[in-house]
Amino acid sequence: MKLGRLNHVGVATPDVDAAAAVYAELYGATERTETKDFPHLGVRVVFVTLPNMQIELIEPLGEASPIHKYLEKNPKGGQHHMCFEVEDIVKARDAMIERGATVLGTGEPYIGAHGVPVIFVHPKDTGGVLVELMQDPALYQGEAGQ
Amino acid sequence: MKLGRLNHVGVATPDVDAAAAVYAELYGATERTETKDFPHLGVRVVFVTLPNMQIELIEPLGEASPIHKYLEKNPKGGQHHMCFEVEDIVKARDAMIERGATVLGTGEPYIGAHGVPVIFVHPKDTGGVLVELMQDPALYQGEAGQ
User: Fold this and answer.
1) Quick check: is A110 in a domain?
2) Under 8 Å between Cβ of B4 and B85
3) What's the CATH number where B116 sits?
4) Which of B51, B80, B124 is closest, CB to CB, to A76?
5) What confidence tens digit (pLDDT) does each residue in B36-55 have?
6) Helix (H) or strand (E) segment spanning residue B94
7) Can you tell me the distance from the alpha carbon of B73 to that of B6, in angstroms, rounded to the nearest whole number?
8) Which value does ipTM take for this structure?
């Protein structure tokens, strides 16, 4: 198990469209995806694309959203997680458990906002940083390939 | 003024060497720089190198370190800033001011841990995210070129 490239930094915000406007108007980072809701994940998402990675802007969607707690502590928003690509998400999950880390949720990889399986590792394992591991999309063959 | 590539994510930690060991042992991210002290910046730094960017691990150095306040709020550490490359740091600074953002410190670019001039933009301007702008090292000609 070895970290690949940083796919994105997740940034929590009360309003993804207002946040995307800041990256566009203040910083000239105008390349962005459409606003998309993921009700089963409890988030509304916009990706701002930079030359070597994306910023994932994340707004809470629904009562059970995992972003509410973060925004309670940080009402203006802030850096929420870092997401790295791995060659094999199942092997990466197994390695995390074997090495004593805590995988959030059921521990089973699930399909994230990029359409590939992901897991999250508890911030206590990485010095307060919430780490997302994401199946490298270039190596993903869909459910049948898992 | 347009953001270029993400150069690094800054991660505050009480101990850069312990943090670097976590990235190596838990995640297999073994490529790192030597530990280096920057007394005039108030930080001790290790860079962990990933395929498309670096993680800048930052430990407070001295009483006046800008990292103390962050660690008071987040004793285990966490994500502290994102640093993006720009083609011309002076023009970028001017654009930030013109667009109503707050540049920290004196407002003058100064040499950061990478040996090129940087500025920091106040988190209030970017939805709670502290943004560092960094002269693209490939386009930097030293003090004489500024």
Assistant:
1) yes
2) yes
3) 3.10.180.10
4) B124
5) 999 999 999 999 999 999 99
6) helix B89-98
7) 26
8) 0.94
Is residue A132 among the annotated active site residues? yes
Residue A1 lies in a domain: no
Whether the CB of B3 is below 8 Å from some CB of chain A: the reply is yes
B72 within 8 A of B64, measured Cβ to Cβ = no
Sheet with A36-38, side-by-side order of all strands: A36-38, A43-50, A53-60, A6-12, A78-86, A131-135, A117-121, A110-111
Calpha distance B22→B68 (Å, rounded) = 21
> What span, in angstroms and rounded, lies between the C-alpha atoms of A43 and A66?
8
Q: Which two tokens stand for residue A85?
A: 């690509």
- Find which of B8, B47, B79 to mutate to test the A interface (most A CBs within 10 Å of its CB): B79
Would you say residue A23 lies in a domain?
yes
Domain of B62 in residue numbering reads as: 6-145
pLDDT of residue B145: 44
Q: Which of B18, B53, B82 sits opposite A79 (nearest CB)?
A: B82
- DSSP-assigned states of every residue in A72-127: HH-TT-EEEEEEEEES-HHHHHHHHHHTT--B-TTSS-EE-TTSSEEEEE-GGGGT
- Specify if A139 maps to a domain: yes
Q: How many domains is chain A built from?
A: 1
